[in-house]
Amino acid sequence: MTDSLAIVGAGAAGAAAAYRLRDAAPDVTVFEKSRGVCGRAATRRRDGCRYDYGANYVKPGDGPVGDLVRDLGEDGLHDVAQPVWTFDGDGSVEPGRDSDEPKWTWEAGITQLAKRLFARTDAAVHRETRIESLSRAGDAWTLTDADGTTHGPFADVLLTPPAPQTADLLAATDWDDDRLAAAREAVAAVPYRSIVTAVLRYDFDVDREWYALVNTDGAHEVGWLARESCKPGHVPDGELLVVQMAPDWSRAHCDRDPDWQTDRAAEHAAALLGDDRLLDPAWTDTQGWRYALPDDAVDAEPVAAVRDAGLHVAGDWVAGEARVHAAVESGLAVGDRIR
Ligand SMILES: Cc1cc2nc3c(=O)[nH]c(=O)nc-3n(C[C@H](O)[C@H](O)[C@H](O)COP(=O)(O)OP(=O)(O)OC[C@H]3O[C@@H](n4cnc5c(N)ncnc54)[C@H](O)[C@@H]3O)c2cc1C
């Protein structure tokens, strides 16, 4: 049991924590409910296309992530060259809002981030294993998955699911200690925005000077629209648009029929780009992200108070910034502490 760590979630934060501990003592076991790794930095494949339908790209930020991404290997790593432009509630498109920072993704998709991090570790990654409860006896943690299988004992546990899902896990934790309720309450209080992503595939080119358009006044039903063809290796011909609907729209319509959602997204794409051909995509795809982006950081004190019992949290909601690089930094920081 000594020096063993269970990580729940194989997203950017979980992968970064495992990476930071790759040469250190703890045996690391990762539990991920999905088939793939990298969480909300997600890639799908269909008909020769690859598309990042959650996080669009990774920025280096001000910390160690720039060097880390390069250290993971520059083969297949791409900085999206075209700029991000803006649009307002009236659909008026303007140049601007791009920085000099790289916008990284990989030819094989943004999931390469977690895949490359895990590839440099000895961590055992159990996919399609949803953890449903935790229990502490003596100074050891055990975890129980959705099939009723118990895993452990572990000296430390790191929880990285989005805050509402981490709060559910803390609510299903058997540990007789006053600090637990305060930690759960703090985690449950983190507010989130939802996003519906609509993917629109076209067999013709959509040539523009920009990679993506971002809405800057919060007055449009679309929040973000990007041309996936700007990412080398993602779209063999024609275009694939990733349209992220605005949070209010997404909350109101997340349970609607996917065809209805993509019809609305296609209408907005046609209007924004002034091209009626966009009303009729060759195929479409959707994803509803209920817990897309945390709007605030968790209150640090109650979650720090449970650390000395080997209970840790990491993720964008711990960092207080809904960005991949922030999640990575949060995972690295926990890795350092456990080390
Ligand atoms: C639509 C959208 C667009 C975005 N755009 C950008 C962008 O362009 N740039 C950017 O930097 N960021 C962007 N983000 C934010 C970015 O995706 C996140 O900040 C980052 O991926 C968070 O990583 P994480 O490891 O904290 O959490 P996650 O990626 O959510 O990882 C948590 C993992 O835990 C797993 N899990 C949950 N519950 C359990 C359980 N009970 N048992 C086992 N496993 C479990 C999940 O399946 C997941 O893999 C975007 C997010 C969305 C949704």
UniProtKB/TrEMBL annotation:
Protein name: FAD-dependent oxidoreductase
Gene Ontology MF annotations: oxidoreductase activity
Occurrences of domain Amine oxidase (ranges): 102-338
PANTHER family xrefs: FAD/NAD(P)-BINDING OXIDOREDUCTASE FAMILY PROTEIN (PTHR16128), FAD_NAD(P)-BINDING OXIDOREDUCTASE FAMILY PROTEIN (PTHR16128:SF5)
Source species of the chain: Halobacterium sp. NMX12-1
Upper classification of the organism: Archaea, Methanobacteriati, Methanobacteriota, Stenosarchaea group, Halobacteria
Gene3D superfamilies referenced in this protein's UniProt entry, alphabetically: 3.90.660.10, FAD/NAD(P)-binding domain
InterPro entries: Amino_oxidase (IPR002937), FAD/NAD-bd_sf (IPR036188)
SUPFAM superfamilies per UniProt: FAD/NAD(P)-binding domain
